[in-house]
Specification:
- The relative contact order is 0.13.
- The protein has 17 helices and 14 strands.
- Helices cover about 45% and strands about 10% of the residues.
- Strands 1-8-9-4 form a four-stranded mixed β-sheet, with no helix packed on it. A two-stranded antiparallel ribbon has the order 2-3. The chain has a two-stranded antiparallel sheet with strand order 5-6.
- With about 475 residues, it is of the alpha+beta class.
- It has two domains: about 200 residues, set domain protein methyltransferase, domain 1, CATH 3.90.1410; about 170 residues, no CATH class.
- It binds S-adenosylmethionine.
- The site of S-adenosylmethionine (SAM) has 15 residues, from strand 3, helix 11 and strand 7.
- Keywords: Methyltransferase, S-adenosyl-L-methionine, Transferase.
Length: about 475
């Protein structure tokens, strides 16, 4: 997934819409005064005062006044264990438009004051730019024109994205590729933070007032609540109080002609019902990395497995070279990390008996190459590929024993993975252990959802391979 933002269904793409820059200039002028900077550290205090005196009832009227339009007449804001949510304030029918948020009240990278924007350049991604907008508005405290929105953004201690996990917490998910992806994402954010500091060195008032932890928090706010549009990655106030259901058909849609984002209900809702949309077809690994939560049963789960060559195989190097050369894409880019050509994404195999989708063809082709025992067999595969569509080992090997052996290589590695995952789940410390504070208990549960989902997929692949080897 690209930087953790949600893709929208975009209608009628046009040139990038222009956003009013008046706020940006207003902000710039204010930010650069030293008195402003002196008081910036008290902004959190102001936030707290605001958050205790303002209720969520005032938020939608504020946003409607700001945008000068009706945004929603059927939704209200509620609060629960998973933060804010939107619920039906009256009956909603499938097909109803439940909210419309104009672009002019969305927060996008263009809102950075132009002198800052010009210095940042393209090497700083849009997520980082929107994160910087949030930080600058936070520093303004109650003087920010976005204060009612900014104070409602989740606080660092309310966020559970795996980039915030401690060593011990990350250890729980070491078996999953999410472990590496989390470390990698953290390093990438740190690099972007340093690049921003360097680019803005002529603005010491800004660079000296933000630290990497604040930036990491703002960055995670963006990955967990921004949508991609023609303007880059934008925060869509009010719409971003909608929580996620992987099975929902409702998405946030952009209409560039009307300059707004909207959501259409995919089903009926009774008054009081929690309204959910789908952020994307995201696995638990992606949800944990970018959004800080996991689903107990996620229909979009997948596992990234790295297939090892057989130990002591004298042809191992040649096989890998051949594979890398024959593949159009030898590396996989998943959640901001490059995986080598022997990494494969596996989804749940619904039926072990062959109906529906089985294991990915590319994985089976790789196994056939691994099963070759002589240079001649490898050459034969190359000749067959040259006479066909150019892809290596896509069809079953003529020698059935060899075809079974190829799949048994996979089977033994999958069986080992299943055992390792089972051991990892077993090793998760009990929820009621004395060390389980609320935060740790929550993260442990997320780790459990992740590992059990990935284990389910590995077991389904194992069953499919068992069946294939037995019945071929
Ligand atoms: C776009 S925001 C939704 C509004 C959010 N609840 C809030 O308080 O602002 C996305 C965040 O909501 C939470 N969230 C959304 N859907 C969830 C779900 N199905 N289960 C648990 N948390 C969820 C996660 O913390 C996620 O990062």
């Amino acid at each position: 997934m690209l930087l953790g933002t949600r893709f929208t269904n975009v209608w009628r793409w046009w040139t990038s819409p222009t956003i009013s820059t008046s706020h940006a200039f207003h902000f710039n002028a204010r930010f650069l005064t030293s008195s402003q900077l002196e008081t910036s550290s008290s902004s959190l205090l102001v936030d707290n005062v605001l958050s205790t005196t303002e209720t969520d009832d005032v938020f939608l009227p504020w946003l409607e006044r700001k945008s000068n339009t009706r945004i929603s007449s059927v939704l209200s804001i509620g609060k629960s264990d998973i933060g804010r949510f939107l619920f039906a304030s009256e009956t909603i029918r499938a097909g109803d438009c439940i909210l419309k948020v104009p672009f002019n009240v969305q927060i996008s990278p263009d809102m950075l004051p132009s002198p800052i924007r010009d210095l940042l350049g393209d090497e700083i991604g849009n997520v980082a730019k929107v994160a910087l907008v949030i930080l600058l508005e936070q520093k303004l405290g109650s003087d920010s024109k976005w204060a009612p929105y900014i104070i409602r953004l989740p606080k660092p201690w309310e966020m559970h994205n795996t980039i915030f996990w401690s060593e011990r917490e990350l250890e729980m998910i070491r078996k999953s590729s999410l472990y590496e992806e989390s470390l990698n994402q953290r390093s990438q954010i740190e690099r972007e933070f340093l690049a921003i500091k360097q680019a803005l060195e002529t603005f010491p008032e800004i660079v000296d007032s933000i630290n990497c932890d604040d930036f990491m928090h703002a960055y995670a706010l963006v990955t967990s609540r921004a949508w991609r549009s023609t303007k880059g990655d934008s925060l869509i106030p009010f719409a971003d109080f909608l929580n996620h259901d992987g099975a929902s058909k409702s998405l946030v849609l952009n209409d560039d002609d009307k300059q707004l984002s909207e959501v259409i209900a995919d089903r009926d809702y009774a008054p009081g019902e929690h309204v959910l949309i789908r952020y994307g077809k995201y696995s638990n690994a992606t949800l944990m990395l970018d959004f800080g939560f996991a689903l107990p049963y996620n229909i979009h789960d997948q596992v990234l497995v790295q297939i090892k060559t057989v130990e002591d195989d004298p042809l191992a190097r040649r096989k890998l070279e051949l594979w890398q050369r024959s593949c159009t894409s030898t590396t996989k880019y998943v959640n901001g990390i490059y995986f080598p050509g022997n990494s494969f994404t596996i989804r749940e195999v619904r039926s072990a008996t062959g109906k529906g989708r089985g294991l990915p063809q590319s994985l089976r082709a790789f196994a056939r190459i691994l099963s070759c025992t002589s240079p001649q067999e490898l050459n034969d595969l190359c000749t067959e590929a040259a006479n066909g569509d150019g892809r290596l080992a896509r069809i079953p090997l003529k020698n059935l024993n060899r075809e079974v052996e190829a799949h048994q290589i996979l089977l033994s590695q999958f069986k080992q993975l299943v055992e390792e995952y089972e051991a990892s789940i077993e090793a998760l410390w009990p929820v009621d252990s004395p060390c389980s504070c609320k935060k740790m208990a929550q993260r442990r549960l997320m780790a459990q959802h992740l590992l059990t989902g990935e284990l389910r997929i590995l077991k389904s692949a194992t069953a499919w391979l068992n069946n294939y080897c037995d019945t071929i």
